[in-house]
Each structure stands twice: as structure tokens, then as C-alpha cells.
Amino acid sequence: MTTSSSPVGATPSAGSPGAFEVLDACHRQTVDMLARLSALVGGLDKSGPDREARRTADEIIQFFSQTARQHHEDEERHVFPQLQDSDDPEIVQAVLRLQQDHHWMDVDWKELSPAIAAVADNRGGYDLEALREGVEIFTALSHDHIALEESCIYPQARIRFGSAELQQMGREMAERRRVRSARTANAGGTGS
Ligand SMILES: [Fe+2]
Ligand SMILES: [Fe+2]
Hints:
mainly alpha; globular; 0% strand; 77% helix; Four Helix Bundle (Hemerythrin (Met), subunit A)
């Protein structure tokens, strides 16, 4: 799988990416972030994280706490509902599994994120072996999830969606990003 640094969240207009291009770009970013997360925890030792590792930990937290959650919301609002009443039981089963995956990825990230935040803040106090094991599980689940979406659900959704539906989906996704960015800027933080 390739990685991309394309921004996830452009407003759909002439020359801008469409809804599925935004979703695909987020998958590439997720794969990239998972690789960085694995490298981060693999490189930690008793001497603690250096400045680069702390900055990486901070970026990983921002991504999985904001961008990845936004991506799940996009799929749950726009993609899964279109397919869960499919005549094909395999498609219905795949949607159920993907919905369940989102729940477990959320649970996994809530367990991992305090330790990653401790790395970002150089606080220590986490169990490194447990962290590495948790990252391995989270990474494997995320890769399997993306593979199922890209091999089964996204192609089916692309077939089902008309151009008007795609445009509407792209507009709603862009609007949610705009509102969230404005809210984050007003709160004085950083967002995606
Ligand atoms: Fe998903
Ligand atoms: Fe996805």
C-alpha cells in the first residue's frame, strides 16, 4: 500500500477530490500513521523518547483522536447505511463487521492513547510491553478493516451512488470538516 500526504478534507468543487477520493486519502494517511506508531513504540527504551519521538507521538494522537474518528463518522453516515439493506448477505455481513470494527478500534485507541500522550509529554509511567502488544493488535485490526472496505464496500458503494448522491456526500463531509476546524480554531487548538 502506498502512503500519501494529501490533505483529507477539501471542499468539493472543480479540481477538488470527490468524497471517495477523500476517504481513500484518509486510508493512505492511516497506513502511514500506523507505520509511524509501530516505529515509535518499537524505538522506545528506558532512556525515554527524544524530541522527534515526542513530536511524532503528538501527531499520532491528533490523527487517531480526530481525523480517524471523522473518517469513521463519514463512513457510518454515508457509506454503511447505503449497503446494510443489500440483497447480498456477504455485503450485509461485511457492513456489520466494519461497524463492529469501528467500535473495537475506538476501544483500542482509548486504551492506547494515554500511553502515547505520556510519550508525547515525556512522562513515562506506561508498560512498554503492553503498549507494544496493544499497538500490534490495533495495527492488525486497522489493516484488515481498510482491506475489507477497499476490496468490498467501497467498490459496491461507488456502484450504488449516483453523481448527485456523491456530490451531496462530498458537500456534507466538507461542511463537517469546516465546522470542526472553526470550532477547534475558536478553542485555540489544532485540528484536521
Ligand atoms: Fe471504516
Ligand atoms: Fe475507512
